[in-house]
Inverse folding.
């Protein structure tokens, strides 16, 4: 049997090791009564690798900006994870690419992201 990764068995604060994934889309009503519009929504599920605690964030689409917004809200509410795992989806790859490029070039298109990275000490 293969041993578990260290991030799953080492005692650590909650969400220090985090996994993120999207739940299947569901319909959300935009009001009450007849003739109300519905739209698709997704849930970004952040799972603590040690305690299996979950943190859910509602996202309106599968774009990278929505993922970065959900990540920002997650870190604001919980903590900055030391290690993150995700599925092999293009939006997760794009978010990883944009964060790495922003840190490397120091020319960040989003001023809020630059401030956020500096304040959190993310290198």
């Amino acid at each position: 049997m293969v041993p578990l990764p260290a991030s799953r068995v080492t005692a650590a604060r909650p969400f220090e090791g985090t996994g993120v994934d999207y739940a299947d889309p569901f319909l959300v009503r935009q009001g009450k009564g007849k003739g109300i519009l519905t739209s698709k929504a997704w849930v970004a599920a952040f799972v603590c690798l040690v305690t299996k605690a979950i943190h859910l964030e509602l996202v309106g689409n599968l774009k990278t900006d929505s993922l970065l917004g959900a990540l920002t809200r997650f870190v604001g509410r919980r903590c900055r994870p030391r290690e993150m795992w995700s599925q092999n989806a293009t939006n997760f790859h794009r978010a990883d690419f944009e964060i790495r490029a922003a840190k490397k070039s120091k020319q960040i298109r989003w001023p809020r992201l630059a401030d956020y990275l500096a304040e959190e000490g993310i290198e």
